[in-house]
Write a structure and sequence with these properties.
By secondary structure, this protein is mainly beta. It contains 21 helices and 73 strands. The longest helix is centred in the middle third of the chain and has 14 residues, at about 425-440.
Length: about 1100
């Protein structure tokens, strides 16, 4: 008799609010694939995973109570048809034999594969190496170990099975959720990893943390080595001992080194696990370096190559809703203090509540592009499947979702919390919690299908594909159930019949499928197949465990569009042996045999274009140490911090030796540093007393130029920041005069009083008198974001003394905006310098000089100039037409916030509650309606009076931005962003421009800095761009997918972005600035990188053609 524990523990579960702006398009006429749900009465496929809530442990006590069951697909009787096994939680699992033409027979009883207990994950594999698939079933929930021991149904080859998990040594008695068979030691037989979780989630954080630091086998995931007939548990010896609430597992060769790795998706606070296969029977958890962040509550997972680069990418799903109402109702903000405690103090991974698409960089690291791809919000998601649904050659994404009861509805949960707080008896608390869960409503939502459009872009095809039925779906698996060459789907639902979908892809979309033939020497699991045709390369691995608690058909499936034959097929077996086929017709399923593999696969070698130089080789030892300031105490709803901007780098010949020197600015509390070249290609730090004296300033951009006309390079440094009060002396820009030998002394009287937070300093001979004047860009008004900074024009008297003449030259320029960068150029070719300014919440603005004045002419020069969060601007003739073009860095497209001319991203700022603080209201489109970005808790903390207007989360969730703030919006400061992509502004004819977005690969992160140079020495100017944004508000989520990107100029305004593994450029820190210098007498080009809160980097570029 099965027993369950009587004790439970009650705690509140905080969630992190994460909101995005766009509403995915759900229909498109050019997508012709349709999935047709089959009638259970006609198909014979009927499975109902029902829950008896009268005896069910409530999910506030047993956290996985509503997690549902799984699906496994495979040909169990070797008749050429894929059969289906469904796991049940409080009902028996069932086997459905495929009889052809989408008819199935329930063979559970006669096959002997019925189950007792709570079954979760399921997968199929030929465990005993006899050529027949067996079934492995995970169990969980019950407290008595034998009641949750995993099951292995060995195929008797006669339509029956025998349960033999104990005999084979894989009757894991942990709380198991999923399992994957894979050949980790490449000895030809399938080994096994089991994803497990502890019993109790609702215990103190310290308990989880201590187990995370020092995991024990009792709660650990398990690894079993196949020793040729039985398995040996090798978890500890292999380095797999771990702790966390595992939900998904994949066993892909993540770094393409020939050895399968393990990625385990982990629910709740503990980070995901990425075990790198060391090739010697051991694994190392490399999650700390492989990914920058992970989902808060990782659920389903899959691996697949979404961009045809021969490296598997990773999809992990979570539970961010798509709709505004559900988002505001079911999730609330987690406190900043708790998040920082978990991440900064305990060392947990940075996380966020949304789906992640980890794009493989090819160097052992991944960059999440989920928000750019548009697949990051699919509600409470479970299964995550890469599958070519329309046979066009690109891996699409299918996601199931739904949660059985809305137990985390904020209004209901708030009421429950109050009631629970008044109780002291634990049994009564359990009774109340169980009743609460039973009476919570259900909100069914549809599953999702995203079509891969190529170029890292996906389009929501849910409705047009036939998945608009609202359900509560968990496990799912795909397979070609009718042998027509496309992938069908089986979905396990809770509380309603499971779904069987026939894929009706049009016949002009062709396919090619591969089965591995039986060979006692080699299991087919982990076999890789590469197709080459029409300049296209596709890659797949034979993985069966995919998604959530499920296993897909053991066949490698490719869609190939209209291609009738592929040029080359490479079949790479787990031990590295390979067979190559040529001119293979499509629309067939091939059985490949290990005995025919007579080659050894060697991955294509790729030489790196650039290389990083260690500090010991250059002498560059600067490490930026950011001073801490909590911007959110001044303005609670800032979208990102403003106090962490640098470091910024200036280059010039400081000591007159014809070599490039550096000044690296520093934050308040750290002195800026001057590096002089020593002639041998090393940078030597020179102590400057006045720099040390001025370390209380926050350095922004700086510039070397001859301010006093004595022939050497002086240094002007802008003072920026957010933390000092408005008009504070520490915002004063500083001019340091050069003694001609690289010694600098502050010229305190050179500049008038200018106590304004600034961003950039841009010298130019504005008035044509032979000396250099300066534009200083105003960054912001401190503690009053997004109020503009104060910008100014400073005219040089020829001796290094400057007069501020903004009101005379251009009064409007003073309040140009939140300026981040600017450039002097002659836009109208009249021989006089004009000014282009870019900044946050600003259009690209043009200020043309006429009669000694600067006049804004943006509307005339660039009608409809896009408003962005512009960071930087650089100029060069990129298309060879003799006119300057401009590379302008922006926020990028891989961020929570989205903007377009039709649907702008908006900020309002006003002291809504009259307490003396400039309050912020961000708004965005959900569909065609504009709602506040922030949730109820955040909004009411900033403006407590909103609680009087909206008493409940429900009231607030229904309200659009106008209903929340009303007439206050009319008098508020307002900006509308319309463009977040980084761009090139091509000058077609003098003063006439075309806006062109940079390639999508360079939109994965902000471009904070760019360098223009001929990287490959082909005579054309290439681009190097880099940046991240670690200063984002926790509720927003930081931008950290940037790795730096080299864009080769292919001519004709076409760019070729180089991946990390080809270029060798990997700039994954919080890059804020880059400068190109020439080192040594050989003048080798070296890129200097300024990283926030990290060491600078030096990247050597090619000094000759490639």
């Amino acid at each position: 008799m099965m027993k369950i524990s009587k004790h439970t523990v009650w705690v509140l579960i905080p969630f992190l609010l994460s909101i995005s702006c766009e509403q995915p398009v759900k229909n498109s006429p050019d997508f012709q694939t349709r999935f047709i749900a089959q009638d259970p009465q006609k198909s014979g496929f009927y499975f109902l995973n029902s829950l008896d809530e009268d005896i069910l442990i409530n999910p506030l006590s047993y956290t996985n109570a509503y997690n549902g069951g799984g699906v496994a697909i495979g040909d169990l009787n070797n008749d050429g048809l894929q059969d289906v096994y469904m796991t049940g939680n409080m009902v028996s699992s069932k086997l459905f034999l495929n009889k052809g033409n989408f008819t199935f027979e329930d063979a559970t009883g006669k096959a002997g594969v019925g189950t007792k207990g709570w079954c979760s994950g399921v997968t199929m594999a030929d465990v005993n190496n006899d050529g027949w698939l067996d079934i492995y079933v995970c169990r969980t929930y019950y407290d008595i170990p034998e009641d949750r021991a995993n099951l292995l149904f060995i195929n008797n080859q006669n339509g029956t099975f025998s349960e033999q998990a104990a005999h084979f040594g894989i009757n894991d008695e942990n709380f198991s959720i999923g399992a994957s068979f894979f050949d980790y030691d490449r000895d030809g037989d399938p080994d096994l990893v089991v994803a497990n979780h502890p019993r109790d989630r609702m215990v103190s954080l310290s308990v989880h943390y201590n187990y995370w630091l020092a995991p024990v086998k009792k709660f650990s995931n398990r690894l079993f080595r196949n020793d040729g007939g039985t398995f040996t548990e090798v978890t500890e010896a292999a380095g797999l001992l771990s702790y966390g609430f595992s939900l998904g597992v994949t066993t892909s060769d993540l770094d393409s080194d020939g050895w399968p790795d393990i990625y385990i998706a982990v629910d709740h606070d503990e980070p995901d696990l990425i075990f790198h296969n060391n090739g010697n029977g051991t694994f190392t958890n490399v999650a700390a370096t492989a990914i920058k962040e992970n989902s808060r509550s990782s659920m389903g997972i899959d691996a697949g190559d979404v961009n045809h680069d021969l490296y598997p990418d990773i999809l992990v799903v979570e539970m961010l809703p798509e709709e505004n109402f559900l988002e505001k109702m079911n999730m609330d903000r987690q406190s900043v203090e708790r998040f920082q405690y978990l991440v900064d103090s305990l060392g947990y991974k940075y996380y966020h509540m949304r789906n992640y698409l980890h794009l493989n960089n090819g160097n052992g690291t991944f960059s999440d592009i989920g928000q750019m791809a548009g697949i990051h919000r699919t509600d409470w998601s479970w299964a995550a499947l890469f599958m070519d649904a329309d046979n066009d050659g690109w891996q699409d994404i299918f996601i199931t979702n739904g949660y059985y009861r809305n137990v985390y509805n904020n209004d209901l949960f708030k009421s429950l919390d109050a009631r629970m707080s008044a109780l002291t008896d634990m049994a009564e608390k359990n009774r109340v919690a169980a009743g609460y869960a039973r009476n919570c409503p259900q909100t069914k939502v549809s599953n999702y299908l995203f079509q891969n459009k190529g170029g890292l872009q996906f389009e929501n095809r849910t409705t047009s594909a036939g998945f608009d039925l609202p359900t509560i779906s968990t496990g799912a698996a795909y397979g070609d159930l009718d042998n027509d060459g496309d992938l069908d789907l089986v979905i396990n639902n809770i509380g309603e019949p499971s779904l069987l979908y026939e894929n009706k892809t049009p016949g002009h979309s062709r396919y090619l499928r591969f089965k591995t033939g039986y060979d006692k020497r080699m299991s087919g699991l982990g076999t890789k197949v590469i197709l080459e045709y029409n300049g296209i390369t596709q890659y797949r691995e034979l993985l069966t465990t995919r998604g959530y608690q499920s296993g897909c058909e053991p066949i490698v499936h490719f869609g190939v569009g209209s291609t009738s034959a592929v040029d080359k097929v490479h079949i790479i077996w787990p031990d590295g042996k390979m067979q190559t086929l040529s001119d293979v017709p499509t629309n067939q399923t091939l059985t490949v045999e290990y005995k025919n593999a007579g080659e050894i696969y060697t991955p294509p070698a790729k030489g790196h274009l650039v290389k990083e130089l260690p500090a010991s080789a250059t002498g560059l030892d600067f490490v930026q140490r950011e001073n801490y300031y909590n911007d959110y105490e001044d303005q609670m709803l800032l979208p990102h911090k403003l106090s962490e901007q640098g470091p910024f780098i200036a280059t010039g010949d400081a000591n007159g030796d014809q070599l490039d020197d550096l000044y690296i600015g520093a934050p308040s509390g750290q002195a800026g540093v001057l590096y002089l070249q020593d002639g041998a290609g090393r940078l030597v730090k020179k102590q400057i007393p006045d720099f040390e004296k001025d370390k209380g300033y926050e350095d922004a951009h700086s510039a070397f130029f001859d301010a006093d006309g004595d022939g050497d390079a002086d240094l002007l440094v802008a003072s920026g920041g957010y933390e000092f009060p408005e008009n504070a002396p520490r915002y004063q820009p500083r001019l340091y005069l050069n003694d001609g030998k690289g010694g600098f002394t502050k010229a305190a009287a050179a500049l008038p009083s200018w106590p304004h937070s600034s961003s950039c300093v841009k010298p130019a001979d504005f008035d044509g008198d032979g000396d250099l004047d300066v534009f200083i860009g105003g960054l912001l008004t401190p503690q009053k974001y997004p109020a503009p900074g104060r910008s100014g024009i400073f005219i040089n008297d020829g001796k290094g003394v400057f007069e501020e003449l903004t009101n005379k030259i251009s009064p409007e320029l003073a309040n140009a905006g939140m300026v981040k960068d600017a450039i002097w150029t002659d836009v109208n070719q009249d021989g006089h310098p004009d000014l282009i300014i870019v900044g946050e919440w600003m259009p690209v603005t043009f200020w043309l000089q006429k009669d000694g004045k600067l006049i804004e002419k943006t509307k005339e020069v660039l009608p409809g100039s896009p408003v962005g969060w512009w960071n930087c601007i650089q100029a060069a003739d990129l298309d060879g037409n003799g006119l300057e073009d401009f590379v302008i860095g922006n926020l990028g497209l891989n961020y929570k916030f989205k903007a377009s001319g039709r649907k702008p991203f908006t900020i309002y700022a006003k002291d809504f509650d009259n307490n003396g603080t400039l309050d912020i209201a961000l708004s965005t489109y959900y569909g065609d309606k504009v709602y506040p970005v922030m949730g109820y808790t955040c909004a009411t903390l900033q403006t407590p009076s909103l609680k009087e207007k909206f008493a409940t989360f429900t009231d607030y969730a229904k309200a659009d931005i106008e209903q929340v703030y009303g007439e206050d919006l009319r008098s508020a400061l307002r900006y509308d962003a319309t463009q977040f992509a980084s761009i090139v502004l091509y000058q077609d004819t003098p003063g006439a421009f075309t806006v062109s977005e940079l390639p999508i690969e360079s939109q994965t992160a902000p471009v904070n800095s760019s360098v223009i140079t001929d990287v490959n020495k082909d005579g054309k100017k290439d681009l190097i761009v880099a940046g991240n944004l670690y200063q984002s508000a926790i509720e927003t989520g930081r931008a950290d997918a940037g790795t730096g990107k080299i864009l080769l100029n292919m001519g004709g305004r076409d760019w070729k972005p180089l991946p990390v593994n080809e270029s060798g450029l990997y700039l994954s820190n919080d890059v804020k600035s880059m400068k190109l210098i020439n080192l040594g007498k050989s003048r080798r080009p070296v890129l200097i990188i300024g990283n926030n809160k990290a060491a600078c980097q030096a990247i050597e570029l090619p000094d000759e053609g490639i």
